[in-house]
Specification:
The protein has about 525 residues and is α/β, with parallel strands linked by helices. Helix content is about 50%, strand content about 15%. The chain has four domains: about 170 residues, Beta-Lactamase (2-Layer Sandwich); about 160 residues, Rossmann fold; about 80 residues, Orthogonal Bundle (Helicase, Ruva Protein, domain 3); about 70 residues, Orthogonal Bundle (Arc Repressor Mutant, subunit A). The chain contains 20 helices and 15 strands. The longest helix is centred in the N-terminal third of the chain and has 49 residues. The N and C termini lie far apart (about 95 Å).
Length: about 525
């Protein structure tokens, strides 16, 4: 059996120490493993890593081997105090052959007891530096052997201190990056929370006030929410307001457009898959539900789900569990579901394209977001908001808007809702050369609408039709003095609802949106005016 000499032993120790320090563990654990190795190989009884704490202006034991928790807590050194404090002050190592004969040795930890006739205890203390700056010290004590061995131990300890200093520097850099990322992440979350405050959702119309009131009430709960409304009304904005004003605000908010992917891809996107589950599944994938654990998932265009996916979603809502595609293991999640659709889900249930049990699971709290044409009083504030935003982004100063242009924007039906208005304002700001918001900056379809309203077809406009109707009514109902208003308005209201229901194939939600009234109002009018419907 080969017995290593001192130089071979030191090389072996340094190689093992390097492997330990490169292990990427927490600093205290790394040091303890390294010192335990030295204790085993070189008979070190106690080892300590003392690091300088700038907050307290003291050195304190950050990690140790052979010391109790109470002894570690007692290990605090002022600069220049005792041997350890002197090493940190001067940056020069200290070697004490026998601590019982050295008056500067403090035994601050109280761990060394020297009895008469017992072997002498030697003490070594070497500085740990970052460049020219001393950031700490390594202290070791062991039974005295001889001066040559003690000098060899000190030399080896200085090399190890250099390696540990590099490890400390790397740990500091990693910690600084982690702190910066945490600070940036918190700032981002604070900004998101501020951005999606309820008072940042623009709207003072009665319809929007009802939306905001319901949103504020449901946000703190765990309830599933179903958002109904046409494309472009701001369903995602409301979903984010619910999430960022809930107890889940610091957890993920995950958005999935259910109508943008095929059934197979959507299943994988929602629930994940395991390697080999299907062609192209070359590695395991975490699904959106798993990624949203603890937070919220926003399922847009929920009405497009296939029956198979509806069944899996129903299970997640009921049991809070699912399996990845191709896997038999069950994954448990805690996710709040916020779903959205521009379809009439009740009608889809009647047609058999949407599961009734899933509809009722989703329909815990329903928020109907009105189309822009049903909240025209909000348009001026929305225009101002978008002007501020796009002026800032594009370094423009479009501020002046004529009454004529504003009237056009107020009367336009906005089939694309708030999103269409936002795009129209952005286009106008980008193409502007001055401060005035002129009609020629608007998209073509809005300019054509403006020309139609005020042009040659004025007789076919709403005002023209209303004028003709009023003139005819006055002539036709001369004998009904005192009842003309009720007769004409009632007949017009009834016929308008009948035509709207016919135009939307009898779907009341779409008819209400088309007319720009609340569905409850439509139902009330249908009963009052005795209008026949398909249901």
């Amino acid at each position: 059996m080969h017995i290593m000499d001192r130089s071979e032993q030191e090389l072996d120790i340094l190689e093992q120490i390097s492997q330990i320090l490169g292990g990427g563990m927490e600093l205290g654990q790394v040091f303890q493993r390294a010192m335990a190795l030295l204790g085993d190989k070189l008979n070190f009884q106690r080892c300590a890593l003392v690091l300088w704490d700038e907050a307290t202006d003291h050195g304190r034991i950050a990690a140790a081997v052979g010391l109790s928790r109470e002894e570690i807590q007692r290990g605090r050194y002022a600069l220049g105090e005792g041997i350890t404090g002197r090493v940190m002050a001067t940056g020069r190592p200290q070697i004490i052959s026998d601590i019982s004969k050295d008056r500067d040795f403090l035994n601050r930890t109280g761990s060394r007891t020297v009895e008469a006739g017992s072997p002498a205890i030697s003490f070594l203390c070497v500085p740990v530096k970052e460049g020219d700056r001393v950031v700490g010290a390594i202290t070791v004590d062991k039974p005295f052997a001889d001066e040559v061995t003690l000098a060899s131990d000190a030399r080896l300890l200085k090399i190890i201190a250099g390696e540990i200093s590099q490890t400390i520097r790397i740990h500091h850099m990693v910690q600084m990056e982690k702190d910066e990322l945490l600070a940036e992440n918190q700032l981002l979350r604070d900004n998101l929370h501020s951005k999606y405050r309820f008072d940042n959702i623009i709207g003072s119309s009665p319809a929007m006030m009802e939306v905001l009131a319901t949103t504020a009430q449901v946000a703190p709960s765990r309830a599933t929410v179903l958002l109904l409304g046409e494309t472009g009304v701001g369903k995602e904005l409301v979903a984010k307001a619910i999430h960022y004003n809930s107890p889940r605000r610091d957890k993920p908010f995950i958005r999935v457009n259910c109508g943008a992917l095929s059934a197979q891809l959507l299943e994988s996107e929602l629930f994940g898959h395991v390697k080999g589950a299907f062609t192209g599944a070359i590695r395991d994938k975490v699904g959106r539900f798993e990624a949203a654990d603890g937070g919220s998932i926003f399922l847009d265009e929920i009405g497009t789900l296939t029956h198979e996916l509806q069944v899996k979603l129903l299970r997640v809502l009921q049991e809070r569990e699912f399996e990845r595609v191709g896997d038999h293991r069950t994954v448990k999640v805690d996710v709040r579901v916020i779903a959205a659709t521009n379809l009439d889900l009740e009608e889809e249930v009647h047609k058999g394209t949407f599961r009734e049990d899933l509809y009722y699971r989703l329909n815990v709290v329903t928020i109907n977001i009105p189309p822009l044409r049903a909240r025209r009083e909000d348009i001026p504030r929305l225009i101002d908001h978008f002007l501020d935003h796009f002026n800032r982004d594009n370094n423009r100063n479009v501020r002046k808007i004529s009454r004529e242009v504003l009237n056009t924007l107020l009367r336009y039906p906005w089939p694309g809702n708030v999103r269409e208005l936002e795009n129209a304002v952005e286009r106008s700001v980008v193409l502007s050369t001055g401060e005035e918001f002129t009609e020629d900056l608007l998209p073509l379809q809005i300019r054509m609408f403006a020309q139609q309203v005020r042009g040659d077809t004025a007789g076919d406009s709403i005002e023209g039709l209303a004028g003709k109707l009023a003139t005819q009514a006055v002539k036709e109902f001369e004998t009904e003095e005192g009842r003309v208003y009720d007769l004409v308005v009632g007949a017009l209201e009834r016929q308008l609802i009948v035509e709207a229901l016919d135009h939307t194939s009898g779907v009341k939600t779409r008819a209400a949106d088309f007319l720009g009234i609340n569905r409850n109002t439509l139902n009330k009018k249908v009963k009052e005016l005795n209008i026949p419907t398909s249901d």
